[in-house]
Amino acid sequence: MVKIIAIREHPEYLDEAVDYFSSKWGIERQIYEASITDSLQTELPTPRWYLMLEDSEIIGSYGLIENDFMIRKDLTPWLCALYVEKSKRQQGLGGKLLEHARIEASKLGFSDVYLCTDHEHYYEQYNWQFLGLSESEFDGLTRIYQISSLIK
């Protein structure tokens, strides 16, 4: 059975989650550890981190963070670190994570969610709207998407 959990509500996954995010994105473990640890206690709406589990195995993930290294500081929150294990792709699990993120952002009081990516034609199929290209702090221009988090 597949389920999505908030690490904030399941702190027993902290170390495993930090290792997972770091291994999938090639970002230093300490960066994820600081943010995920912060998410366990903060009174602010972000950061928040989530895992998709099949039984007890992590098969996907995402985070909601204040800013995903983008120059556009006026946009928040950002969906980041969306990942589905290669062996589990083409089963609609990425779409489930995206919808979960939209609903969680709404619960946290946000009216919209943003993401940056180099992928084209993926997010559009889940009703994300391409806003245009924007500068990131590291990689030059990247594609920016937005979706309403308001539950209809």
How are the elements arranged and paired?
Elements (H helix, E strand, L loop, with lengths): L1 E5 L7 H12 L3 H13 L6 E7 L2 E9 L12 E7 L8 H15 L4 E6 L11 E7 L5 E8 L4
Antiparallel strand pairs: 1-2, 2-3, 3-4, 5-7, 6-7
What does this structure look like?
This protein has 152 residues and is α+β, with helices and mostly antiparallel strands. The chain has one domain: Aminopeptidase. Helix content is 26%, strand content 32%. It has three helices and seven strands, in the order E-H-H-E-E-E-H-E-E-E. The chain has helices spanning 14-25, 29-41, 93-107, and strands at 2-6, 48-54, 57-65, 78-84, 112-117, 129-135, 141-148. Strands 1-2-3-4 form a four-stranded antiparallel beta sheet, sandwiched between helices. Strand 2 and strand 3 (57-65) form a beta hairpin. Helix 1 (14-25) crosses helix 2. The longest helix has 15 residues, at 93-107. The chain is globular and about 40 Å long. The mean pLDDT is 91. This is GNAT family N-acetyltransferase. Residues 5-152 form the N-acetyltransferase domain. InterPro entries: Acyl_CoA_acyltransferase (IPR016181), GNAT_dom (IPR000182), NAA80 (IPR039840). One of its GO terms (molecular function) is N-acetyltransferase activity. Keywords: Transferase.
Brief write-up:
With 152 residues, the protein is α+β, with helices and mostly antiparallel strands.
User: Roughly what fraction of the amino acids lie in strands?
Assistant: 25-35%
| N-to-C span | 27 Å
Structural class: alpha+beta
* Number of extended strands: 7
Flag low-confidence runs: none
Q: What is the CATH architecture annotation? A: 3-Layer(aba) Sandwich
Taken together, the total number of domains comes to: 1
Q: SSE order in H/E notation?
A: EHHEEEHEEE
Rg from alpha-carbon coordinates? 15 Å
Q: Mind telling me the CATH superfamily name?
A: Gcn5-related N-acetyltransferase (GNAT)
Spatial order of strands in the largest sheet: 1-2-3-4
* Average pLDDT reading: 91
- Per DSSP, the total helix count is 3
Question: What level of helicity do the residues show?
Answer: 25-40%
CATH fold-level assignment: Aminopeptidase
- Principal-axis shape equals globular
The biggest beta sheet is recorded as: 4 strands, antiparallel
Query: Any idea of the CATH class?
Result: Alpha Beta
InterPro entries: Acyl_CoA_acyltransferase, GNAT_dom, NAA80
Keywords: Transferase
GO molecular function: acetyl-CoA binding; N-acetyltransferase activity
Protein name: GNAT family N-acetyltransferase
